[in-house]
Amino acid sequence: MKYTRRTILKSGALASVTAMAAPALSYARIRGSNEQIRAAVIGLNGRGQDHMRGLKDQLVAVCDCDESLLNNRSKDLDVKRFVDFRKLLEQKDIDVVSIATPNHTHSLIGIKATEAGKDVYCEKPVSHNVWEGRQLVNAAKKHGRVVQCGTQSRSSPSLQEAVKYVRDGQLGDIKYAVGTCYKPRKSIGKLKKPLSIPGSVNYDLWCGPAEKRSLYRPSLHYDWHWDFNTGNGDMGNQGIHQMDIARWFLGYQTVSPRVLSIGGRLGYTDAGDTPNTQTVIHDYQPAPLIFETRGLPKAKEFQAKGWGKNMDNFRGSRIGVIVQCENGYVVIPSYTGATAFDNENNVIKKWQGGGNHYQNFLQAVEAQDASLLNAPIEEGHLSSALCHTGGVSHQLGVALPIEDIPTELNSESPLFQDSVKRMLQHLKANEAGGNGRAEVVLGNQILMDPEMETVIDNSSAADRMSREYRKDFEVFEVS
Length: 479
Description:
CATH topology of the largest domain: Dihydrodipicolinate Reductase, domain 2
Strand content: 15-25%
CATH class of the largest domain: Alpha Beta
Helix content: 25-40%
Structural class: alpha/beta
Largest sheet: 12 strands, mixed
């Protein structure tokens, strides 16, 4: 669908905004009634292909620092092509940019896009670390831009209704939420010699703000997720969706006050350094958030055959969320549905049906009103930050024999102890621990000032809330 001011008026979206919030609407920034929004997609692999489909009627330009990928993905399209995102942002005839690059460039490109007067759809997580995510939020506010996070579950009417049901107290007080990311992740392999970067790739641009390193994985693309230099593991890849849903139900609007991770990269040795098995507690009060990542199958026997079909399941959630309340619980196993149960496991209520996240973004862009967004950038930042702080706890931890972990958690809540116990059982079933080997990482506890998003009395953790940025790819403080 082509979005113009006329189509938005017809849909009623702009009309309702005008009636309810006319003083905040800058009509000088609305295009003519038949002028189409002009969009560009930056990053054409993986999620970028979905962005191109979602914005196909608005698409006028594409960008990727892998020239071979750029040409292949756009060969049948009448669009402008760019290798360097900075050149694309100089174009005055582009209104919107959609960012689907690796995580380590999300905030950088998003900030520069807002400075260039563009509205932004940014893939999740919206940042690679906590500090730069807040700078993207600040930049959106400073430049008055519409910036949406790609957590598409926020546009699902069924989940919106389920969240309201729970937060209205229909099941009593919320006790806790558990997010699960039980997604098959096999070894990415490990090279003896550094990967030869394809000649079609501008590797300096690809690295951007990250440290420019030799790589020992066989694939440049996608497997950057499992390298802390460029990615955030599966908690920040797939799990960000479930982390966001869990926080949405809980209703917290800050980072958590205390974070602790237990886990590791277990079951194989490869070029990755992010956990494939992890349990994190975000110790919100009164209702904490537990997040569980499992990349290995149910047991070692399935590693040879049937890996993807034999993943763990916790209370009806494989890649999903469980929200436990006083008088029942809700299972959210997808982006488009949820089911409420009483405490005897009887179904009380069901919700089903998804929404169009790109459509929501385009409506907000056409109206130039960020309040219309279902996933405004600050929501994306907060959920991304929970993934980052969990990752920092892991990176600063110490490896211990699997048998020692329970003793180290004697002061933790029964909820967290149960989560860790199930994780350790999972590792033993995969023969990925035990025998006195120091394999499971007990993370470094991190205490946060939730309002300031700063670390309390832990200089090592504080340093990792940001990063050292390479010259020409710096993220600067935005105030």
